[in-house]
Write the structure tokens for this entry.
Amino acid sequence: MLFQPAIMALILASVMATGMVAASIPFALRVLRRWDLSSGSEAQLVLERRTYLVSTVLKLVLLSQAAALILFVFNADRMATLFTGAMCAVGTLRVDPFGFPTLYLKIAVFFSAVAWLVLNHVDNLGWNYPLIRVKYAALLVLAPLLAAELLVQLAYFLGLRADVITSCCSTLFSGGSVTITDNSLASLPHRLSLALLGGIPVVMLAGGLLILNSGRGGVLYAGLAGLAFASGLAAVISTVSVYVYELPQHHCPFCLLKGEYGGIGYALYLPLFAATACGLGVGIASWAQRQPSLKTAAPAVARRLACWSMAGFALFASVSAWLILRSNLILLEPVSWRLGWFS
Amino acid sequence: MTVWLNRQRQLLDFASSSLLRRKGKNTGLFVVYTIIVFMLASVMLFSQAIRREAALVLAGTPEVLVQRMVAGRHDLIPGDYLAPIRAIRGVTAAEGRLWGYLFDPAAAANYTLMVPRDGSVASGTVVIGSGIAKVRNVGAGDIMSFRGRDGKPVEFKVTDVLTRESALVSADLFLLSEADFRRLFGVPEGRFTDLVVSVRNPREVRTVAEKIDAALPDTRIVLRDEILRTYESVFDWREGILLVLLAAAVLAFAILSWEKASGLSADEKREIGILKAVGWETSDVIRLKMLENAVISLLAFLLGYLLAFAHVFLFGARLFEPVLKGWAILYPEFRLTPFVDELQVATLFFFTVVPYTASIVVPVWRVAVVDPDAVMR
Amino acid sequence: MIRLSAVKKAFNQGRNNEFWALTGIDLSVRQGTVTVLRGPSGSGKTTLLTIIGCLARPTSGRVALRDRDISGLPERFLTDIRRSTFGFVFQSFNLLKGLTAIENVMIPAYPLGRGYASLRGRAHDLLAMFDMSGKADALTEWLSGGEAQRVAIARALVNDPQVVIADEPTANLDSERSAQFLAIAERLKREGRTLLITSHDPLVYDAGLVDHVVTMRDGRVLETN
């Protein structure tokens, strides 16, 4: 199974990303020990020059890991034909116990890389590199995360065997089998999901406006963004998917990406991920503004990111609403639904 | 926002003009890059196309194949087995198939003989594949004769030659009537080579297969899905091996690009120094160089992919012929159906552009951190 | 406007060939004045120029620009300041080959993301100021020495800098062109800009417009007047 081209490509990408970040570790340690901006010595100048390399490398790592995440899911979907019982990405991921952990780690790497890049960007805006030590300490945390992702992914790919019978998404995401986290998500009552879907843009808009007006509440916004991410996914699994497939029992979040549904999943997930990533950035930029050299620059970054984040959440909510409204499935009668709120 | 856009645009402008100013140095790299993309894309497009052909061909076949095994070897299967199979719930149809191999001394080749299920070939006539027509130099209206089971010659008149388009599966095909088949091979009435079973609901295929196995213990059941899966697996694996072999080429290419990016002429070093002296920052220079490389990557990728597309779908993967021909005498000349797969394009991207970009990061950085005051000396 | 205190600059620090180009400079440059640095080669005047012009950071000592300490600033900010405050005219002009005169003038402003049309307009105006409009689209290789210098000066002025720094401006010119250069320098002074020139050409340091001459030797200032 390892010789499948997409798998080789993914392993190659992970190896390169991990390698490049790991190679920056000795430098990170040097920065933590010897950084002294006020000295004009050559050693300091060398350190400063090297930071450009690290930030360029991290930008490339983020781009490649974002692309790899999409490739991973896409490929899992395609490979479903190779496994008995698998009809979409879920089946492929369940062939081996490391399947879903790989996905979670990849998502974690994506968000961590975005967070680091925001930190880096904000740090560069200050005339005394105020966050340099935090930044490179964070790198020491990022590297093992990348390594973990590489190893778990490798374990998963090594464990892929065509003769293992796996289950398809209908057993995983239907409302009534053994408790797995995803299952409880699927059985979320539709009213609650719709409330969440409506609530997300409202809450995030409120939070964003607070930031735009008063410049405070950035960290709170980041927390809210995380919650919005989780609730958005829950709502997609429990309700939006059902409306798209027009099948009350089909909750799979991956089948949305298939061509037969117009790849509408991308229109849902891309804004959600982007909005959450920007939301995280808002938190970081806001936290950074306590540094004296960033007093004006950091809030500006936070504001800009908040705008992007709000737009992303709004887009996600509108696409969900459109999918629900245009669907031929009627889960909740409009009249009784409205009455239901009051009873 | 506009400031950022303007900046990127002007840097891109400058990057393109830089590339054009140094055509000589960049052309060599560009050509190698394109060749690498071409090779990898050809392999991937070819395997994908063959895989799709196989899937398309198999799509029309029945879901279950039943063969009789005697002492671990494939034997003729009695037609009586059809009744218990047809009785199983979920089975829409079950029929016997007649097919086999015939060695033709005149061409020193093996033909695949088959009786079409719709009985469209009349007794005494045959429809042959394009490969047979070519190798025996026969066409419609000619007579072909073979030695029958009883030693006496059996003559067939060729009524039609199968088209080239289906050559991938039909090049060595020899279609004849049931009576002629039985006479030629001595297969008695009521016996078939194997049985094919159609099942309506894809989810029930397994259950049906298990029931057939329970009812007829001396049979071997092969599911169409298993065949598909095996094909996919095998082609995947073969494609993977080829790509691994090409990995050496990719590695060499990465080393070449590292060298090219590091080996700046004095002119180029001077130019970067001047840029920094007049007010460009290190990150601006890095961005400039990365844009240059992005332009090269994009163009090489597009060109390489287009050339590979033409190579595989217009020229029938001519460069791979020696490798693929193997020991098949009746090698089909076929045209594969053009097919572009996004997953494949993305994978190709990861095999070419990502290693290239990774290999130039350090050289680009080293160049960009040149001290601006060096230009004053 | 620019003040240096105990500035020292070393190269190849910590290695066998460690070399101190500047060994303790105290200097003050007032706004709107013309200062000439003179001294034999190896005296450190070019190094001093790079430090004053924010091209390099001092190994020790302080540099203050308009009373703001810029010696500890990271490269990013230093470049920003340099871009908007200083304009450089190099000894060998250092124009980019293969580009036209007007493109060369526009280059320092690319990273600032100014609209292309307005930038081109400004570049045209600058070239017109030096009677180079006709040669705006000429490739650098076709320009004569004097023309190249005028393009270099236009380039130095594209971001409207307060300070113009020229390194040995008359070294490659005959007397007529040198006089033309001095005329341009006078015009810049009248516009209120500060000029900093290195030269060992008496035509320059004896010129009337010069307010301040700093003589250097072996990395230190000998005398100023």
